[in-house]
Amino acid sequence: MTEANDNRARxxxxxxxxxGVFFRASTQKQARPLGLTGHARNLPDGSVEVxxxxxxxxxxxxxxxxxxxxxxxxxxxxxxxxxxxxxxPPERFxxx
Length: 96
Hints:
By secondary structure, this protein is an alpha+beta fold. It has helices spanning 23-31, 56-66, and strands at residues 8-17, 37-42, 48-54, 74-83, 93-94. Strand 2 and strand 3 form a beta hairpin.
């Protein structure tokens, strides 16, 4: 993993069939081995928000995976934006 000061943060909004198909848990499973911290959470409109903090390379890898998601999901739209690293930064990746 890179030094903390090299970390970046990215937020994605994933739309489609992404709730009730283990999307958050699957995202956590992808993020942790990449050394990413942050969260995946359901939004009231049926989409999922993913916020991840880590190296640019790890963020890119997670973003590529989010385009498809887990087998049961159907991703219709994926929006990404680079954001400021939250202070304090998240300690782990959660599904809250």
